[in-house]
Amino acid sequence: MSWWQEAVIYQVYPRSFQDTDGDGIGDLEGIRRRLPYLKSLGVGALWLSPFYRSPMRDFGYDVADYCQVDPTFGTLEDFDRLLREAHALGLKVLLDLVPNHTSDQHPWFLESRSSRENPKRDWYIWRDPAPQGGPPNNWQSFFGGPAWTLDEGTGQYYLHLFLPEQPDLNWQNPEVREAIQEVMRFWLKRGVDGFRVDVLWLLAKDPLFRDEPGSPHWRPGLPDRARHEHPFTEDQPETYAYVREMRQVLDAFSEPGRERVMVGEIYLPLSRLVRYYRAGCHLPFNFSLITEGLPDWRPENLARLVEAYEGLLTRWDWPNWVLGNHDQPRLASRLGEAQARVAATLLFTLRGTPTWYYGDELALPGVEIPPERVQDPALRRQRDRAPTPLLPLGRDPSRTPMPWDASPRAGFSTAEPWLPLNPDWPTRNVAAQEQDPRSMLQLVRRLIALRKEPELLHGAYRTYRAAGGVYAYLRGEGWLVALNLTDRAQALDLPRKGRVVLSTHLDREEGVGETLALRPDEGAVVRLG
Ligand code: GLC
Fold it and tell me: A Pfam family for this UniProt protein (predicted)?
């Protein structure tokens, strides 16, 4: 097995992990100082959300220089030191590559917009206005409004699937592809272990720029992007060739035992998602638990999802699972802490690489953000346009600072943090949960350690029972995971006697006979005799 199959990937949102220079915003030096914590959790790899030079209109997903660290986060030297120390601890480091768009302040775009004749004009997607005036077609931005903005100076529109300050690069242009591959080489030479690639499924656009058809699910109040189906702006056939090229860059830097990997951000139905394996993406993010599992938290539904996914994978495809990230509501807010513990048990005992979002190990809740402190550009833009934006509270609630201890500002910063802390930070913080033998933090640590058992790493998955509020499955020959998804006691007949090795309540390790009694909200991992 390769490191990226055995490792748990831990996502750090650099703005919110640890501030060391007293500006209320986290930095690379802060992440470096917290490496021992990450090591003690048992994770094998860190994915760092963007820290490149950026005007921060989309908090770093608008890159103005792919090869520089933004001063908010530190310097290249800080990064090199962080990487060196992470490696010394046996932690891999994945960077967030944002190849679909740049900042409108990137020198490439400044050149591109300077005149129609500029050699970089074709690095972005420029079109004439429609014959009757207005945007070239009906494509809508994810963050609300048309995906086109008119550049007065040159009289043409440029495409941006996100903010107008995030113009889309033209991936049809081989120079663009080469430029992004150069960026990859820059970081690979410095030693990074791979990339999480931002919006990988959006890189290619319909070469004919056809209007997208109306969606039957649209109703007034939904975000603009939901007006249409997206046969011309998502998952275009050209994308696979682009992925293949990126994979070649990674392979050129890989050695046995030291593979450089590509994790792809792809929101697509599973049947289309798995094609990205064929194109060479090591781990196309499987968001099905987020999109379909958490909203319908029943055994029948979870078993259906897991079986559907497992059924689509070939023996060369390695599964992966995700419960949260910086764009999604917090796990604990979706399920409550008791079931969040059950969900963690699921994530770490399914077959495949789990990705874990910082703070979820404390059952951090989504934090209510007062209107005057809202930062998320997606929410600010959509608030004015749609009564029901994609995420009604925006993404800030899931991006609040990591509470480390009970000292002022939770040990995160010496200044007022850029987003408020969770109100219960004096008790819900890392130090407090380190002291509490039954905390969520201890549970996550135990689960990550348990996952290193060979059969939990690569034993086959088989559904054992998915009914009556209990979801149970076998891993390999010797393990059974039983999850009580209800707040009522349940019982499960076991195939044979065994031993409860771990309970989400962290209060029992004991032999079991033919029947396993599950308390309300209890998940148990059983070693079968
Ligand atoms: C991805 C990121 C998100 C960002 C968007 C535009 O979906 O995860 O945070 O806003 O891309 O780059």
Answer: Alpha-amylase
Of all protein residues, the one whose alpha carbon is nearest to atom 7 of ligand 1 is 199
Q: Tell me, what's the pLDDT at 390? A: 59
Q: What tokens does 528 get? A: 């079968």
* Candidate of 327, 398, 399 to mutate for ligand 1, largest count of ligand atoms within 8 Å of Cβ: 327
Ramachandran assignment for 439, one of left (phi > 0), alpha (psi -120 to 50 degrees), beta (any other) = beta
Give the residue numbers annotated as catalytic, written as ranges.
198, 265
E strands, 171-215, are 194-197
Give 17-46 pLDDT, tens digit per residue.
999 999 999 999 999 999 999 999 999 999
Residue-wise burial string across 276-313, b where 16 or more C-beta atoms lie within 10 A, e elsewhere? bbebbbbbbbbbbbbebbbeebebebbbbbbeebbebb
Determine the Cα–Cα distance for residues 39 and 57; give it in Å rounded to an integer: 32
pLDDT confidence bin for 389, thresholds 50/70/90: low
Q: Is any ligand 1 atom within 6 A of the Cβ of residue 168?
A: no
In order of their start, the domains of the chain are 3-103+173-207+233-375+425-448 (3.20.20.80), 107-159 (3.90.400.10), 460-528 (2.60.40.1180)
